[in-house]
Design a protein that fits this description.
The chain is of the alpha+beta class and 52 residues long. It is built from 1 helix and 4 strands; from the N terminus they run βαβββ. The chain has a single domain, classed as 2,3-Dihydroxybiphenyl 1,2-Dioxygenase, domain 1. The relative contact order is 0.33.
Length: 52
Amino acid sequence: MHFDLAVDEPDDLDDAEARAIELGAVREEQQPAPERFRVLRDPAGHPFCLRG
């Protein structure tokens, strides 16, 4: 299963990514559209996206 989590404002995407990493997420090297969404993995290795 893959989750997409919406961020309130596109400008908040950087802050949301930083907070997810603080909580244990890992940023994927491949970022197909980093201006629109960020691909990360949770501590167990499951992928999810933050969408602006």
